[in-house]
Predict the structure.
Amino acid sequence: MEIILATANHDKVREIREIMPDSQIRFKTLHEAGFHGKIEENGASFAENALIKARTVHSRTGEYVMADDSGLAVEVLNGAPGILSARFAGENAGYPEKIARLHEMLQPWPPDLWQASFICVIALICPDGRELIFRGECRGMIAPEARGENGFGYDPIFWLPEYGKTMAELPTEVKHQISHRGRALRAAAEYIQTVTRLLDATILTKPDLS
């Protein structure tokens, strides 16, 4: 089975391939699928944005397409930056600037109130047009200082009290086990594996009409 990943984020592509190393699934990038152009993410939720990306690519390819929309939701900020996590500090801001802006926004509250969640929604569209949504969440805190080198985005400031580490300090295999993306992808993988088994069973039991 081949699945097109509807993202231009190379870090996401790498993580998805690490989390789902199933040899029966080949993940294709947008470039490998021959898709070019920018997708406007103007949805009002993670699910809407994931579907916008998946539908746009599926409309041009007709293949299996998977799209991820994810972000950081901070409780005292009423869920912000949320779906704007990648661009709330400016379209061209890097993650050091985004982290600095987030810390600035959190200054009115003490650090022990900086509860947050990483949220990931996966949209999967099948060749027949079926649309499926899978959601994963990881709860933690915002750390006052960035720590760790393993990860990307907000991982260095996402503190996990039960581990005493930020997401960026965890070994890769542990991070993938507990992360929002890992949880959403495992739910998607379970569905894909079920579909694959059904397809294999249909092929094996198909009568010979020759």
The longest strand covers residues 131-142. Residues 180-205 form the longest helix (26 residues).
